[in-house]
Amino acid sequence: MKNMLPILPFGAALSLALLLSACGKQEAVGDVPSSEELARQADAASQAIRDEAIALEEGGANTAIDLTSMESYTNALRGYSIMVPSGWTVDETASDDNGRVFTETAGGGKLAVSWVENREDAAWSKAVQQVEDGNDTMQGNAVGKNEYRASGVLTNGLKSSMRLLRKPDGTMVEAQVSYAVDQAKSMDPLASAILDSLTLQ
Predict the structure, then answer these.
(1) Domain 67-200 adopts which CATH fold?
(2) Which residue in 32, 71, 84, 102 has the most C-beta neighbors within 10 A?
(3) Domain edges within the chain
(4) What pTM, to 2 d.p., does this model score?
(5) How far apart are CA 173 and CA 190, in angstroms?
């Protein structure tokens, strides 16, 4: 009986055999993650981002103070204003027409702000000298010729941050925030926001 299949060249026959052997063959999929594994990896990545944000915030890098939660104290007679945290009360016995002393009952924080006559820059020089010579733990820096800032731990163990501003007429305004050293983590940003809000009028 005569063979009815056509005779194929050797190369074509080999290609046909390889094609037929590949039919129905499946590749292993063990290396491809399942949808559950992909979801787990996405959750882990999101949690890592949240953890990093929390760590930065706790380190003070992202700490922001909401000034809208504060109240403004303005001394129209002496020409300055400053923001004071809500709930801080005025110590009337330590306050006068030149300024106010505000205290926080719960944490013992204190803000003292006052105008000083500063004749011939004597008060300015004395205030700067007290920081630079009178207390080794306080570190101060001039910010231009009419502003001075300092911070450090006082001899009574309280941490203090201060800002001096000299007015065009030569008088000056001094603001100082003090608080317990163990509250520095939460109070440092607040003290900076308070002092930054001091404005001359």
Answers:
(1) Protein Transport Mog1p; Chain A (3.40.1000)
(2) 102
(3) 67-200
(4) 0.66
(5) 19
